[in-house]
Amino acid sequence: xxxxxxxxxxxxxxxxxxxxxxxxxxxxxxxxxxxxxxxxxxxxxxxxxxxxxxxxxxxxxxxxxxxxxxxxxxxxxxxxxxxxxxxxxxxxxxxxxxxxxxxxxxxxxxxxxxxxxxxxxxxxxxxxxxxxxxxxxxxxxxxxxxxxxxxxxxxxxxxxxxxxxxxxxxxxxxxxxxxxxxxxxxxxxxxxxxxxxxxxxxxxxxxxxxxxxxxxxxxxxxxxxxxxxxxxxxxxxxxxxxxxxxxxxxxxxxxxxxxxxxxxxxxxxxxxxxxxxxxxxxxxxxxxxxxxxxxxxxxxxxxxxxxxxxxxxxxxxxxxxxxxxxxxxxxxxxxxxxxxxxxxxxxxxxxxxxxxxxxxx
Amino acid sequence: xxxxxxxxxxxxxxxxxxxxxxxxxxxxxxxxxxxxxxxxxxxxxxxxxxxxxxxxxxxxxxxxxxxxxxxxxxxxxxxxxxxxxxxxxxxxxxxxxxxxxxxxxxxxxxxxxxxxxxxxxxxxxxxxxxxxxxxxxxxxxxxxxxxxxxxxxxxxxxxxxxxxxxxxxxxxxxxxxxxxxxxxxxxxxxxxxxxxxxxxxxxxxxxxxxxxxxxxxxxxxxx
Lengths: 361, 223
Hints:
The complex is a heterodimer. By secondary structure, chain A is of the alpha/beta class. Chain A has 12 helices and 10 strands. Chain A folds into 2 domains: 2-112 and 313-359, 2-Layer Sandwich (Nucleotidyltransferase, domain 5); 122-312, Nucleotidyltransferase, domain 5 (2-Layer Sandwich), CATH 3.30.420. The two termini of chain A are 25 Å apart. In chain A, 57% of the residues are buried. By secondary structure, chain B is α/β, with parallel strands linked by helices. Chains A and B meet through helix 1, helix 2 and helix 5 of A and helix 1 and helix 2 of B.
């Protein structure tokens, strides 16, 4: 069983060692929509309200009872600590009663290993992890063995999506909203010409990302468009075509940034001469089809296999935590009943700090 | 004979008690509030072992639901709801007010609970146990005004709760009592009394938290 409560999804799933997902319960908290972002205390309260019922639902869906489990895996960080704590206490309690092995999973490791739940992908593979809190390029050398090639020096890519959606009045969460709106753009080339956006760090060495400048540029672009549009006093006054075009331009800009940085990472990764080179994407932003297509093209060009887990396993879910638990249990990597939680928990603690602002892990 | 495991993590004194009716088989407490979550279930396991019991031997679980530290409340409730679910046991939620609200003959009982901010948690109960002012979260000045308006201030007062001493200057004619924090043992006693009076069916639904204060809204963009 895997339990995930580190952000705004209360999720519990049960998977087997032979890659079957027996149950997959996810509750996306709606309480945050009015705030346009996740409120930690609101999230923690909602997790507590639902978690035991979600566990019962997952057991029911799988048709198993607690003593049948081989172990309980739970996200122990990084994330919003109040929510993490709720999941961890629930997991520890269940494990205590039935004497089950416990695994405290790094949420990022969950994302990193998910692909192996659905495909046979051998280590080492190159991972692009893109979500609301993270944007990293890592070589996954094995369970618990990660080499970070690059990370964001300011904001995560998902934040840029959320901000863009908010500026354009598209609601929260921003990723799907921007993708939906962009799909309404008939001519993406023209859209990009009409609404050009900067490409931070593109063309430079290294694999780090930067999105804060892009966020600012989107804000200026929107403000300017409102000024230029006769009769439009605010964003809702803009023609729908303009909103679609701005979303399309933003989305393609992000695709270019990701492909440029991932391109550098591929070169670095191939230096290690991997036997079966593969580019894997994971994280909530990997649900975006335009970004997926761009990255698939990049992988193909460089002779890498491209693997992206299905969308339901890219966004936060319990199955990815359960699978990380399976991988760890197989190696005998269980945790003591008093294992701690971590608000910050880098996958590669030896990676140099990507600076300008402090690193966001 | 009722065997009960009770836990309190809602205030500055974390505690647990393994009890059999009135008898305490094992008790533990700590003022160390950091890491309490990590340690709680370990101490529960050790406590049961020391009492010679397993989870299957218990009849009742009890937990303090608040008001108090939000994080503390959630640690206790998540753990105890998890235990209740996994062991198939009834779980009683006991609020801090339940503990202090015992009627005091001839007195109005003001309960003042610590919140670690300017606004405290208050409730007032009369000599018969009737709630005169239901739980509120406000400054002691605001509560004093509320009490005046209700025409209740001008009578013998008991001031109880872990913030009672702090509030004493507001009502210097009052008497301080029960100023210590709620303990697991007290929660266990209240829970067992409730089970005896109302039956185990009254615990059919697992209890929720008693926050009494809405969440602080600081928006995080993390996901």
